């Protein structure tokens, strides 16, 4: 049942947002976001009286759908804002000047202990990034470059069981390195900090999008199924945790200490102190 829901919602996403980088009218973007905001409430209300397990399955799937719509509309909004920056020659020149002042050797030294990435790969990505920026490429060309980065890094894991884990690890490392570069630009009071911050947000989001799709392809699932299974597992773990806590609480009821605490909590401010002393003697 979950797989059918995932496939249905994936088809809807591809109809509503066929290309996350292509401009979408602001009115349509807002309509999609409002639609996503109400989905879980609508479904929960419609399924009142249905078996609890069925509701959990349905709601986890629609939650993944709503989350995907929110993420993709945000990504599209960032893409349109960044497109204007990437088409501005003076801003690109300032970004190049600021980027050349960044101490990438220091960034690598600080990040190497956490990320443990191959230094030659990091240097190659740094040079490729600078070259792509200098060439004043379009947003679509930047998207191709990001796809090439994913291919380069994940190629050794293609067809292996640890591909999803390696993909997620790369996403974390990418985010960490980019945050270190932004930190350096901030400390240097770079004039183009705002432009870099916008580009960083876009590239992080688009990298998430690429990794999500690569993992889905590797495990032969839809992208929504990748997100949906995590949501379903998290909800199941939370439910089990609540049940265990309730069972523990129930097992403690009847213990002398618990009876005393319950009786004290039920005692009003005006109760006589002697009455409390009597309760203590009975414990």
Structural class: mainly alpha
Helix content: over 70%
Spans with pLDDT under 50 lasting ≥5 residues?
none
Mean pLDDT: 86
- How many beta-strand elements? 0
Count every helix, treating DSSP H or I runs of 4 or more residues as helices.
12
Report the portion of residues in β strands. Answer: under 5%
Explain briefly what this protein structure is.
GO terms for molecular function: DNA-binding transcription factor activity, RNA polymerase II-specific; RNA polymerase II cis-regulatory region sequence-specific DNA binding. The chain contains twelve helices and no strands.
Describe this structure in words.
- The protein is mainly alpha-helical and 283 residues long.
- The protein has twelve helices and no strands.
- Helix 1 packs across helix 10 and helix 9 crosses helix 10 (223-252).
- The radius of gyration is 27 Å and the shape is globular.
- 17% of the residues are buried.
- The model has no long low-confidence stretch (mean pLDDT 86).
